Predict the structure.
Amino acid sequence: MLIYAVADIHANPERIEHIRRTVSVHYPDVVVVAGDIISYLHPEKTFAQLNAMSLPVLMVRGNSDPGYIEKHFEKFSNLASLHLNRVTVKSIAFTGLSGTIPLPFRNRVRFREKNLMKRVYPMIDSQTIVVVHPPPWGVLDQVMGRFHSGSKMVREIVEKTRPKLLICGHIHEAAGVKAIGRTTVVNCSMPATGRGVMIELDQNLTVRCWQLSEKLDKQT
């Protein structure tokens, strides 16, 4: 399976064009958008552009995506929300959590997180791909290379459920690929990566990633 992961589009026309062009060149099986899809207003145009690529586009909301946009997903046949929802593409299960609340030097998905964690745990196993907006605490989450600002809840979910892959964004300057134990963590924020990250899972579900720049592909 080939997954094209992006985050922090913010309805930027150039970023949307990069996504469209990358899909037309690499033919991924699915596009995953890890939040901050729109820019507060007029979500229909951005969603229509993503839907027009004619492949599954799985999304969670970020801090710039108001809750009401969830209803817009239902209008488009190729779009699906992963928030507390398990979606299977080519036998691979995806699930996720929407939202981010930026706090000084850290982020939360919700102010009241315990109930959210109880609901998402049964949806995750060792082969699941989890999509959230904020990175896990301590991994790909440094602001200006100095301060950790990830989510401790996301870190706890990874350590307790050990999913195959976690896709996130939010901290633009911390884009990259790292691991927490057996879980590959991908911060695919577009402002830093240019075109996001391509993720390949082979028949043994081994994860291989390469970062896509605006001019050439950099394999990592």
Observations:
- The chain has a mean pLDDT of 91.
